[in-house]
Amino acid sequence: MKITLLNREDDRLQKPVTKEQLSRICETAFSGSVVTELKELAGGFFNNTYLVYADGERFILRISPHSSVHMSLYEQALMRREYNIQPYFMPLGDCFPKTVFADFTHQICERDYVVQTFVEGTNWEEIKDTLTQKENDRIWYEVGTIAKQICSITSSEFGPPSPAAQFETWGGYLMAYLTGLQTDLKEMGYTYSQVDGFIDLFGNHMELLNTIKTPRLVHGDLWEKNILISKKGDNWRVTGILDSERAYWGDEISEWIHTFVKVSPSYWEGYGELFEPENREIRRLLYRGSDHIMAATECRLRDEKDPTWAMNHLDEIIKELKGILIICNS
What we know:
The protein has 330 residues and is of the alpha+beta class. The protein has helices spanning 19-29, 78-89, 124-127, 133-151, 170-187, 193-203, 206-209, 256-259, 265-271, 280-302, 308-329; strands spanning 2-4, 35-41, 48-54, 57-63, 99-103, 113-117, 122-123, 216-218, 227-232, 235-241, 248-250. The strands form 3 sheets. Strands 1-2-3-4-6-5 form a 6-stranded mixed β-sheet, with helices on both faces. It has a 3-stranded antiparallel β-sheet with strand order 7-9-10. A two-stranded antiparallel ribbon has the order 8-11.
């Protein structure tokens, strides 16, 4: 088997995997098949990802960070969470990768790993600027229809899938999520008045949040970088939706693409009406604030950059929420 690896530094999350370990993984995962090549792929910041050729077919091998790596509370056991929520995505079509093998025993290396089907397509983010407005609008429309299909799937409890904890109320899950991020930051030695202030304000809206009674499937990381497209005749079509490890059961408006991404009006034409449109703008503000705290936590965990930009945005969101409270109480 030909093995091609990246010249990777000893990164905190994407630590190099040895050729011996990769050979043993392939022997285990592809038992009875002929594996001719394994090639490590660049990109991403969490898992190590490889393209594998076995019996003339392509597969994707994903290996999680080492078990000894300190994880944020919201990032723990992501691969196992994805494995457990995948059956809810599978009926939606071939654009979602399907897991064909999983090993969480750590017998080969101290890391979880899965083998998934290969999904054809080009990353939309990489070529978006080369497409016409009409072409991009058509893709936005299709993404909207897919997002609506995802959110049409319901459950009985809120929060990420097992092995994470589930909650009876939407507000209860979100408060646990936010205080978890707050704890992560403090354990790293960072205390932000904006984070503390936002969580206090968030608590004032628990009654509103708990009016969300139906836990809906939320992809959690739906945006251009996780969407693959392919040319079908004269039109570009969505052929892949990737990285569902952050999926959870919650409010449809909390989907990343609804709070953090500037979408085309065509997206909403495809998505249609919200299932629960009441107080949508307040809910969106609350989720945007939460997303900025999450972004700040990621910046600190990965030593990427100073999260001042996230705190500045959070300041603005706090001002808006305080204004809403004043109006409601007047």
